[in-house]
Each structure stands twice: as structure tokens, then as C-alpha cells.
Specification:
Blueprint: H1 7-29, H2 38-57
Length: about 60
């Protein structure tokens, strides 16, 4: 079939299809999840304010 004689090539095709499906499923599951949680967002905001204060004092 398709001129492919080696079973290793079939496994490569099957593996690539399975990995593509796994990526799609992972994307659907994690679609609306944020990259930074609330606690880290607060720390980031505090750090930015602290950095701005230091920059203003210079």
C-alpha cells in the first residue's frame, strides 16, 4: 500500500497521527487556562511597582 514496504514507516505514520491528535486534545483541554495564576500576577504587579519606584528615585 502506497509503495511502503517497511513496517517501521507505518509506525512513523501512526505515531505522527497519534501525536497530532494528542496535541489537539491538549489544546482543547487547556484552551482557556491562564499562563499566570492570580498569586503570581500579584507578585508581578508588586515587582513592577517596586521597579518603577526605584527608577523614579534615580
Amino acid at each position: 500500500m502506497l509503495g511502503i514496504e517497511s513496517p517501521g514507516v507505518y509506525w512513523a505514520y501512526i505515531g505522527s497521527i497519534i501525536s497530532a491528535l494528542a496535541c489537539v486534545i491538549y489544546g482543547i483541554i487547556n484552551w482557556n487556562k491562564g499562563y499566570i495564576d492570580d498569586q503570581e500576577a500579584e507578585k508581578s504587579q508588586e515587582w513592577q511597582e517596586h521597579e518603577k519606584d526605584i527608577t523614579d528615585s534615580l
